[in-house]
Write a sequence for this structure.
């Protein structure tokens, strides 16, 4: 009687096993848990008018860290904008790939911060964007991340933890590569 070798079975398991495991994980009942935090992914992303968020001279479209608020900019608003400035500064060498944008309801004074791009939510292009977003959330202030094409892809409460926002921005920038 001849013994069968286990080697072909082991080779088959090593070569085909990962594909079978991937299929089971993808189509099986196990779904990865969402990342912890307060973010909401905007599905579908909210498109902004072409070039509305981008304000660059070199033609490279940056990611945007957007603060939107339809009510007057009070002390909380100023604090939120300062927190976003700190998150932007914490990006280090990637900070030049991200711009800060403040979408206001039209009653905000122009900021003295030259790096802050201001757009209005009560004019033509801004009103169209404001209609798509939740008006109640915009009254309180909301933080968004916009991709280089100007699509708002993620939304956060205005009091989002800075570490969470920084972590998400770094992941997005790493996934987008150097371009």
């Amino acid at each position: 009687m001849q013994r069968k070798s286990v080697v072909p079975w082991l080779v088959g398991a090593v070569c085909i096993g990962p594909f079978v495991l991937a299929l089971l994980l993808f189509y099986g009942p196990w779904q990865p848990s969402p990342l912890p935090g307060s973010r909401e992914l905007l599905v579908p992303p909210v498109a902004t008018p072409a070039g509305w968020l981008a304000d660059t001279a070199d033609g490279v479209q940056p990611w945007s860290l957007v603060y939107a608020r339809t009510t007057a900019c009070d002390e909380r608003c100023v604090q939120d904008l300062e927190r976003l400035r700190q998150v932007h500064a914490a990006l280090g060498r990637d900070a030049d790939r991200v711009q800060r944008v403040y979408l206001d309801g039209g009653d905000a004074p122009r900021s003295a911060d030259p790096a802050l791009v201001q757009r209005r939510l009560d004019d033509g292009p801004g009103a169209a964007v404001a209609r798509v977003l939740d008006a109640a959330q915009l009254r309180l202030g909301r933080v968004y991340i916009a991709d280089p094409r100007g699509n708002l892809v993620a939304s956060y409460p205005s009091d989002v933890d800075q570490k969470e926002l920084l972590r998400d921005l770094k992941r997005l920038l790493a996934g987008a590569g150097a371009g």
